[in-house]
Amino acid sequence: MNLRRAIYKPMLKLAMERTGHGAALGFEVTKVRRGEVEMTFPYKPEVIGNPITGVIHGGVIVSLLDTCCGTAAMTMLDRPAVTPTMDLRLDYMHPAEPYEPVYVSAKVYRNTSNVLFCRGSAWQDDPDNPIAHCVATFMKLDSPNISVASALRRRLRRLVRGVGTKNKEVSR
Amino acid sequence: MTDTAQLIQTSLAAAKRAANPQAMLDLIPYSIFIGAQAKIENDEVSYWLERRSSNIGNPSLPAIHGGVIGGFLELSASIEILYELDVNLIPKVVDFSLDYLRPGRYKTIYANCTVLRQGSKLVNVTATAWQDDIGRPIATARCHFLLT
Questions:
Q1: What ipTM describes this predicted complex?
Q2: How many domains does chain B fold into?
Q3: Mutate to test the interface with A, among B8, B10, B32, B54 (most CBs of A within 10 A)
Q4: Which domains does chain A have, with CATH numbers?
Q5: pTM value?
Q6: By CB atoms within 10 Å of each CB, which of A21, A147, B28, B92 scores lowest?
Protein backbone atom coordinates (compact mmCIF):
# COMPACT_ATOMS: atom_id res chain seq x y z
CA MET A 1 0.00 0.00 0.00
CA ASN A 2 1.44 3.35 -0.95
CA LEU A 3 1.61 6.36 1.33
CA ARG A 4 -1.01 8.40 -0.52
CA ARG A 5 -3.59 5.67 -0.14
CA ALA A 6 -2.65 5.12 3.50
CA ILE A 7 -3.38 8.79 4.25
CA TYR A 8 -6.42 8.93 1.98
CA LYS A 9 -8.56 6.41 3.89
CA PRO A 10 -8.50 7.96 7.38
CA MET A 11 -8.93 11.33 5.66
CA LEU A 12 -12.08 10.12 3.90
CA LYS A 13 -13.40 8.79 7.20
CA LEU A 14 -12.77 12.14 8.91
CA ALA A 15 -14.23 14.14 6.03
CA MET A 16 -17.43 12.08 6.11
CA GLU A 17 -17.88 12.05 9.89
CA ARG A 18 -16.84 15.57 10.78
CA THR A 19 -18.23 17.89 8.12
CA GLY A 20 -21.64 19.25 7.20
CA HIS A 21 -24.54 16.86 7.12
CA GLY A 22 -22.39 13.88 8.17
CA ALA A 23 -21.48 15.64 11.40
CA ALA A 24 -25.13 16.63 11.95
CA LEU A 25 -26.31 13.03 11.54
CA GLY A 26 -23.50 11.65 13.69
CA PHE A 27 -22.69 8.30 12.09
CA GLU A 28 -19.41 6.45 12.39
CA VAL A 29 -17.46 5.05 9.44
CA THR A 30 -16.37 1.63 10.69
CA LYS A 31 -14.61 0.24 7.63
CA VAL A 32 -12.94 1.76 4.58
CA ARG A 33 -11.40 -0.56 2.03
CA ARG A 34 -10.95 -0.19 -1.69
CA GLY A 35 -14.50 -0.39 -3.03
CA GLU A 36 -16.05 -1.24 0.33
CA VAL A 37 -17.34 0.98 3.13
CA GLU A 38 -19.33 0.29 6.30
CA MET A 39 -20.98 2.72 8.70
CA THR A 40 -23.00 2.67 11.92
CA PHE A 41 -25.74 5.14 12.74
CA PRO A 42 -26.94 5.29 16.36
CA TYR A 43 -30.63 6.07 16.84
CA LYS A 44 -31.39 9.78 17.17
CA PRO A 45 -34.79 11.28 18.14
CA GLU A 46 -34.06 14.40 16.02
CA VAL A 47 -34.49 12.44 12.78
CA ILE A 48 -37.80 10.71 13.53
CA GLY A 49 -40.04 10.54 10.47
CA ASN A 50 -43.12 9.07 12.09
CA PRO A 51 -43.88 10.73 15.43
CA ILE A 52 -46.41 8.01 16.25
CA THR A 53 -44.03 5.05 16.04
CA GLY A 54 -40.68 6.81 16.53
CA VAL A 55 -39.29 5.28 13.33
CA ILE A 56 -36.53 7.35 11.68
CA HIS A 57 -37.33 9.14 8.42
CA GLY A 58 -36.52 7.47 5.09
CA GLY A 59 -34.46 10.55 4.23
CA VAL A 60 -31.90 9.50 6.83
CA ILE A 61 -31.52 6.15 5.07
CA VAL A 62 -31.10 8.06 1.77
CA SER A 63 -28.33 10.17 3.34
CA LEU A 64 -26.60 7.19 4.93
CA LEU A 65 -26.67 5.08 1.77
CA ASP A 66 -25.67 8.00 -0.48
CA THR A 67 -22.72 8.78 1.81
CA CYS A 68 -21.71 5.14 2.14
CA CYS A 69 -21.92 4.42 -1.62
CA GLY A 70 -20.24 7.75 -2.45
CA THR A 71 -17.36 7.02 -0.09
CA ALA A 72 -16.98 3.54 -1.56
CA ALA A 73 -16.88 5.15 -5.02
CA MET A 74 -14.16 7.56 -3.89
CA THR A 75 -11.97 4.71 -2.67
CA MET A 76 -11.78 3.44 -6.26
CA LEU A 77 -10.16 6.60 -7.63
CA ASP A 78 -6.55 6.39 -8.68
CA ARG A 79 -6.18 10.11 -9.34
CA PRO A 80 -7.81 13.22 -7.77
CA ALA A 81 -11.38 13.48 -9.02
CA VAL A 82 -14.89 14.10 -7.76
CA THR A 83 -17.65 11.49 -7.84
CA PRO A 84 -21.06 13.17 -8.00
CA THR A 85 -24.08 10.87 -7.70
CA MET A 86 -25.93 10.34 -10.99
CA ASP A 87 -28.83 8.41 -9.56
CA LEU A 88 -29.86 6.48 -6.53
CA ARG A 89 -32.62 3.92 -6.29
CA LEU A 90 -33.80 2.74 -2.91
CA ASP A 91 -36.16 -0.04 -1.87
CA TYR A 92 -37.50 0.00 1.65
CA MET A 93 -38.09 -3.58 2.69
CA HIS A 94 -39.48 -2.90 6.15
CA PRO A 95 -39.50 0.03 8.58
CA ALA A 96 -36.52 0.49 10.86
CA GLU A 97 -36.93 -0.56 14.46
CA PRO A 98 -36.94 2.59 16.62
CA TYR A 99 -34.26 3.14 19.29
CA GLU A 100 -31.88 0.67 17.58
CA PRO A 101 -28.75 1.52 15.57
CA VAL A 102 -28.71 1.14 11.77
CA TYR A 103 -25.75 -0.50 10.02
CA VAL A 104 -24.97 0.46 6.44
CA SER A 105 -22.61 -1.13 3.95
CA ALA A 106 -21.76 -0.31 0.34
CA LYS A 107 -19.77 -2.02 -2.37
CA VAL A 108 -18.59 -0.90 -5.78
CA TYR A 109 -19.48 -3.79 -8.07
CA ARG A 110 -18.32 -2.27 -11.35
CA ASN A 111 -15.66 0.31 -12.05
CA THR A 112 -15.58 1.70 -15.59
CA SER A 113 -13.62 4.60 -17.08
CA ASN A 114 -16.44 7.12 -16.53
CA VAL A 115 -19.01 5.55 -14.22
CA LEU A 116 -18.87 3.67 -10.89
CA PHE A 117 -21.71 1.26 -10.04
CA CYS A 118 -22.47 0.70 -6.37
CA ARG A 119 -24.91 -1.18 -4.26
CA GLY A 120 -25.61 -0.73 -0.61
CA SER A 121 -27.83 -2.02 2.13
CA ALA A 122 -28.99 -0.94 5.56
CA TRP A 123 -29.91 -3.39 8.30
CA GLN A 124 -30.38 -3.64 12.05
CA ASP A 125 -30.07 -7.10 13.54
CA ASP A 126 -29.62 -9.30 10.47
CA PRO A 127 -27.64 -8.30 7.33
CA ASP A 128 -29.70 -10.86 5.37
CA ASN A 129 -32.92 -9.12 6.37
CA PRO A 130 -32.14 -5.51 5.38
CA ILE A 131 -34.44 -2.56 6.04
CA ALA A 132 -33.36 -1.00 2.74
CA HIS A 133 -31.34 -1.81 -0.32
CA CYS A 134 -30.02 0.60 -2.93
CA VAL A 135 -28.16 0.84 -6.20
CA ALA A 136 -26.36 4.05 -7.08
CA THR A 137 -24.20 5.26 -9.96
CA PHE A 138 -21.45 7.85 -9.71
CA MET A 139 -19.60 9.86 -12.37
CA LYS A 140 -15.84 10.23 -12.39
CA LEU A 141 -15.04 13.88 -13.01
CA ASP A 142 -11.59 15.45 -12.92
CA SER A 143 -11.33 18.36 -10.57
CA PRO A 144 -8.17 20.43 -10.13
CA ASN A 145 -9.51 21.91 -6.86
CA ILE A 146 -9.81 18.61 -5.12
CA SER A 147 -6.34 17.22 -4.91
CA VAL A 148 -5.25 15.03 -2.05
CA ALA A 149 -2.62 17.61 -1.16
CA SER A 150 -5.05 20.53 -0.84
CA ALA A 151 -7.56 18.46 1.12
CA LEU A 152 -4.79 17.33 3.44
CA ARG A 153 -3.68 20.94 3.94
CA ARG A 154 -7.24 21.92 4.89
CA ARG A 155 -7.47 18.96 7.25
CA LEU A 156 -4.15 19.75 8.92
CA ARG A 157 -5.12 23.39 9.31
CA ARG A 158 -8.33 22.38 11.02
CA LEU A 159 -6.57 19.90 13.32
CA VAL A 160 -4.05 22.54 14.35
CA ARG A 161 -6.79 25.10 15.04
CA GLY A 162 -8.92 22.59 16.94
CA VAL A 163 -12.54 21.54 16.86
CA GLY A 164 -13.99 24.94 17.78
CA THR A 165 -13.36 26.34 14.29
CA LYS A 166 -15.37 23.61 12.57
CA ASN A 167 -18.43 25.73 11.79
CA LYS A 168 -16.40 28.65 10.47
CA GLU A 169 -14.65 26.31 8.09
CA VAL A 170 -17.96 25.06 6.72
CA SER A 171 -19.58 28.45 6.23
CA ARG A 172 -16.59 29.92 4.44
CA MET B 1 -55.00 3.85 19.29
CA THR B 2 -52.53 5.46 21.64
CA ASP B 3 -52.78 9.04 22.85
CA THR B 4 -49.80 10.14 20.73
CA ALA B 5 -51.29 8.61 17.60
CA GLN B 6 -54.59 10.32 18.26
CA LEU B 7 -52.93 13.65 18.95
CA ILE B 8 -50.83 13.49 15.77
CA GLN B 9 -53.81 12.58 13.63
CA THR B 10 -55.95 15.33 15.11
CA SER B 11 -53.13 17.81 14.45
CA LEU B 12 -52.71 16.55 10.86
CA ALA B 13 -56.44 16.92 10.21
CA ALA B 14 -56.44 20.41 11.75
CA ALA B 15 -53.47 21.48 9.60
CA LYS B 16 -55.28 20.27 6.51
CA ARG B 17 -58.48 22.14 7.36
CA ALA B 18 -56.46 25.29 8.00
CA ALA B 19 -54.62 24.87 4.66
CA ASN B 20 -51.36 24.94 6.57
CA PRO B 21 -48.84 22.39 5.25
CA GLN B 22 -46.14 23.95 7.44
CA ALA B 23 -48.02 22.70 10.52
CA MET B 24 -47.84 19.18 9.06
CA LEU B 25 -44.08 19.48 8.56
CA ASP B 26 -43.67 20.74 12.12
CA LEU B 27 -45.05 17.46 13.44
CA ILE B 28 -42.15 15.53 11.88
CA PRO B 29 -38.83 15.86 13.74
CA TYR B 30 -36.77 15.05 10.61
CA SER B 31 -38.35 18.03 8.85
CA ILE B 32 -37.11 20.34 11.62
CA PHE B 33 -33.70 18.63 11.49
CA ILE B 34 -33.16 19.58 7.81
CA GLY B 35 -35.27 22.77 7.95
CA ALA B 36 -37.97 21.97 5.39
CA GLN B 37 -40.70 24.57 4.86
CA ALA B 38 -43.96 24.65 2.92
CA LYS B 39 -46.72 27.07 1.95
CA ILE B 40 -49.73 27.26 -0.33
CA GLU B 41 -49.14 29.07 -3.60
CA ASN B 42 -51.78 29.19 -6.37
CA ASP B 43 -53.70 26.34 -4.73
CA GLU B 44 -50.62 24.13 -4.74
CA VAL B 45 -48.17 23.30 -2.02
CA SER B 46 -44.66 24.58 -2.62
CA TYR B 47 -41.77 23.36 -0.53
CA TRP B 48 -38.41 24.92 0.16
CA LEU B 49 -35.27 24.28 2.13
CA GLU B 50 -33.14 27.22 3.17
CA ARG B 51 -29.40 26.76 3.22
CA ARG B 52 -27.78 25.77 6.50
CA SER B 53 -24.33 24.48 7.30
CA SER B 54 -25.59 21.18 8.71
CA ASN B 55 -26.94 20.26 5.25
CA ILE B 56 -23.63 20.57 3.41
CA GLY B 57 -22.25 17.49 1.71
CA ASN B 58 -19.11 18.75 0.06
CA PRO B 59 -17.59 21.65 2.02
CA SER B 60 -15.03 22.54 -0.65
CA LEU B 61 -17.62 23.58 -3.28
CA PRO B 62 -19.77 23.97 -1.06
CA ALA B 63 -22.71 21.81 -2.17
CA ILE B 64 -25.84 20.54 -0.42
CA HIS B 65 -25.61 16.86 0.59
CA GLY B 66 -27.26 14.58 -1.97
CA GLY B 67 -28.93 12.69 0.86
CA VAL B 68 -30.51 15.91 2.15
CA ILE B 69 -31.94 16.62 -1.32
CA GLY B 70 -33.30 13.06 -1.38
CA GLY B 71 -34.68 13.28 2.15
CA PHE B 72 -36.28 16.66 1.42
CA LEU B 73 -37.98 15.34 -1.75
CA GLU B 74 -39.20 12.22 0.05
CA LEU B 75 -40.57 14.35 2.87
CA SER B 76 -42.26 16.74 0.40
CA ALA B 77 -43.83 13.79 -1.43
CA SER B 78 -45.32 12.40 1.79
CA ILE B 79 -46.69 15.81 2.81
CA GLU B 80 -48.18 16.17 -0.68
CA ILE B 81 -50.08 12.90 -0.11
CA LEU B 82 -51.27 13.95 3.34
CA TYR B 83 -52.34 17.35 2.08
CA GLU B 84 -53.81 16.60 -1.33
CA LEU B 85 -55.41 13.20 -0.83
CA ASP B 86 -58.03 11.94 1.52
CA VAL B 87 -55.48 10.22 3.72
CA ASN B 88 -54.93 10.62 7.43
CA LEU B 89 -52.17 8.11 8.06
CA ILE B 90 -48.51 8.97 7.54
CA PRO B 91 -47.79 7.11 4.26
CA LYS B 92 -45.08 4.42 4.22
CA VAL B 93 -42.44 4.78 1.54
CA VAL B 94 -41.81 1.59 -0.46
CA ASP B 95 -39.30 2.73 -3.03
CA PHE B 96 -37.56 5.90 -3.99
CA SER B 97 -35.65 6.72 -7.13
CA LEU B 98 -33.62 9.87 -7.45
CA ASP B 99 -31.80 11.39 -10.42
CA TYR B 100 -29.25 14.08 -9.66
CA LEU B 101 -29.22 16.50 -12.58
CA ARG B 102 -27.07 19.36 -11.31
CA PRO B 103 -25.08 20.01 -8.15
CA GLY B 104 -27.12 21.48 -5.30
CA ARG B 105 -25.44 24.84 -4.68
CA TYR B 106 -25.29 26.30 -1.20
CA LYS B 107 -28.57 28.23 -1.42
CA THR B 108 -32.33 27.65 -1.09
CA ILE B 109 -33.78 24.57 -2.78
CA TYR B 110 -37.39 24.68 -4.00
CA ALA B 111 -39.55 21.67 -4.74
CA ASN B 112 -42.95 20.74 -6.03
CA CYS B 113 -44.70 17.38 -6.17
CA THR B 114 -47.34 15.73 -8.33
CA VAL B 115 -49.42 12.71 -7.45
CA LEU B 116 -49.45 10.67 -10.66
CA ARG B 117 -51.62 7.84 -9.52
CA GLN B 118 -53.61 6.99 -6.46
CA GLY B 119 -54.87 3.47 -5.93
CA SER B 120 -56.55 2.02 -2.88
CA LYS B 121 -53.19 0.92 -1.47
CA LEU B 122 -50.44 2.49 -3.53
CA VAL B 123 -49.66 6.08 -4.51
CA ASN B 124 -47.09 7.20 -7.07
CA VAL B 125 -45.63 10.70 -6.60
CA THR B 126 -42.97 12.62 -8.50
CA ALA B 127 -41.00 15.45 -6.96
CA THR B 128 -38.72 17.98 -8.64
CA ALA B 129 -36.16 20.22 -6.98
CA TRP B 130 -34.64 23.40 -8.40
CA GLN B 131 -32.74 26.47 -7.22
CA ASP B 132 -32.62 29.52 -9.52
CA ASP B 133 -34.79 28.43 -12.37
CA ILE B 134 -37.68 25.98 -12.35
CA GLY B 135 -36.64 25.02 -15.89
CA ARG B 136 -33.23 23.89 -14.66
CA PRO B 137 -34.03 21.25 -12.03
CA ILE B 138 -31.24 19.96 -9.79
CA ALA B 139 -32.93 16.63 -9.03
CA THR B 140 -36.06 14.66 -9.79
CA ALA B 141 -37.49 11.84 -7.72
CA ARG B 142 -40.31 9.40 -8.01
CA CYS B 143 -41.61 7.34 -5.16
CA HIS B 144 -44.23 4.79 -4.25
CA PHE B 145 -46.05 4.98 -0.93
CA LEU B 146 -48.27 2.44 0.76
CA LEU B 147 -51.37 3.73 2.46
CA THR B 148 -52.02 0.79 4.75
A1: 0.91
A2: 1
A3: B54
A4: 3-166 (3.10.129.10)
A5: 0.87
A6: A147
